[in-house]
Amino acid sequence: MKRFSSALLRLVLIACASALVFAAGAHAQIGAAPPPPTQANPLPLSGRSAQAGGVTATESPVPGTTTSVNTVNPTVSVQGDYAGSTKSASKLPFTGKLSLADAIRRGLLYNLGTVDVTNALAQARGQARGARSALLPNFSADVADTEETFNLRTFGFNFSFPGVSFPALVGPFNVLDVRARVSQNIADFTALNNYRSAREVARAGQLSARDARDLVVLGVAGQYLQVIAAAARLESAKSQLETANALYQRTLKQQSFGTAAQLDVNRSHVEALLDQQRLETLQNDFAKQKITLARMIGLPPNPDYQLSDDVAYAPAPVLGLDDAIKQAFAQRADLKAAEAQVWAAESALAAARAERYPSASASADYGEIGMPSDLRPTYTVSVTLSVPIWNGGHTGADIRQAEAVLSQRRAELEDTRSQIEGQVRNAYLDLESAANQVNVAKQNIDLMEETLHQTRQRFEAGVSENVEVVQSQESVAGAHLDYIDSIFAHNLAKVSLARALGEASDKLGQFLSIQQQP
Questions:
Q1: Stated pTM of the model
Q2: Which residues touch 397 (CB under 8 Å, ≥6 apart)?
Q3: Domain limits at 231?
Q4: Which end of the chain is more exposed for a tag (fewer CB within 10 A), N or C?
Q5: Is residue 502 a contact partner of residue 332, using CB atoms and an 8 Å limit?
Q6: Shortest CA distance to 437 belongs to which of 492, 495, 504, 512?
């Protein structure tokens, strides 16, 4: 009876162990099952880079400071992230003198416009790597050590024999499973096209980063020129103040000799005070312009530095308009980014359509399972073919979204091409207008200074009052300001043309006449 009981108990234990092994094997097979087919991931509707800010250079006609000349009003507008930067002085030593090349180098490294786009590019590259992972094999390994007890009554062992007793609980049993797994998509066209789309998006991000560098060059170079123009206005105001003070002292002297009236003294004194006020205003503007430039390139936001370069007037390089447009189409990074966005949208549409195609995958695992003292090798190999039949219209919805995205991206590409051509043409118009303005302003300075010289002689000879001298001084001051603005406008137009052609940092040395200040 004891032998029978022992044999029956062993049979029950073997059955329970077999059930446990079967359960473990079923679990391994489920764990190695292929993933569901990859769904298409349509891109956002707009493919344009979402940059927080921008840089624009404009030249609008405004009435001149003199009655004989109408001038252009050149401005550099920097918005959003492009107006800020991270600190650079601790990373890149600064001597206190800033050249144009150094300003651009610091801007390219530390301006927030390039920093933010670089971070967005890293994110896009990470998304591309994530999409690629769906095409690569997946390897994993696991170890499961299980200790269990079984209630035999739950398996139906709820009976008894005379002289034989069955325990209600059996165990504990220790089962060890050591296993390696591998799975691979054999044919998944949705995943393949999703990867192609993500790769093009990452490439578009890289091109957008290059375009952001051109915007930084435009912003920093334009602001540098604006500081130079502010410094020139300040020097002109100092010269005009010296002239006004000299006239005031001369008028006082003439009054003491009885050859000038008190009205002449008051008039010359008022002119000197106005020039003093103008000088203080220009000093304030000069300091603010320097702070703005410092903010863009990572220097401390104060005006305690000097510009080491001056940019004189020089004719623009000879380049035909048609050739310039062709060069811009070939070099502009934002146009290439728009093209990459179109290709990404085409791949996203192909991924959506591929949801209707069958997909195949394979998986396998190998390991040893059993009691720690008696492990047995087991393996599972499976190949799955999945044929989509109906998914509730999800595929059709993805296709329609992808078609809308592709249509939008193509429209944006055409708009970008038109925008680039418009920028090149505008730069050429500004160049021609500013060059003519330089010539007119220079001639006007000569005429106004000659007029001032004659009016001074008439006043000193007592032929006229000093009102004519004051008016002539105002005209000379206005002519000098017109000339300064025209030089600034011409140089800014060349910087805008360099940006419009693409690869702006490589063209500044050819377009600008940079001279070191003494």
A1: 0.79
A2: none
A3: 32-135+188-516
A4: C
A5: yes
A6: 492
